[in-house]
Amino acid sequence: MDQVSYDSCAAAATGPAGTVFVPPVFLVGMMGAGKTTIGRGLARALSRQFLDVDLVLEARCGVRVPTIFELEGEAGFRRRETHALDECSRISGVVLATGGGAVLAEENRRMLQQRGTVVYLRAKAEELYQRTRYDRNRPLLQTADPLGRITELLRQREPLYEEIADLVVDTGKVSVARLVGRILPMLATCNKQVRPPAADLPPLECL
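Structure for Shikimate kinase, as requested:
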């Protein structure tokens, strides 16, 4: 499938200054679900820009996510995350990987639902644990029982992922290439009506 075929069926709308706003693709799911890796592959397949909210925050703050957590706490990190999500979700046609906890804020869920197509990358707790157990860049997993923590986080967050998802894809042990190939036709048949950000909508206060 080429980019034109997706754009033509993705409910593109008129955006600021009469330009065509191509609905972004938002990837949501738990840490370790593959949002960054799959997002990059999907962006390449669609010839689109890829952004990762966590990487945007790290570039702007000059430190890794765990350091932001350490210095400002989770509440401080979440405020920065919401601002970055607001800004990135205004970009026409972007493929955007969100943080695993981005769905916790109602404001974030509303932005994702209104501005683009939401793909939930679903995985079981055991699979997520296997993918993240050696990753020290996950502040919420720095605990004596990371599998238990993942299980609890998944229990809390899965209803929120499902609430805003337009498409649900089980990642399992499938390769990235096959997952991208599975998602592309699903996007092509998604006829969601997207509300582009208003031209006069002010950005959230910058931190």
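The longest strand covers residues 117-122.
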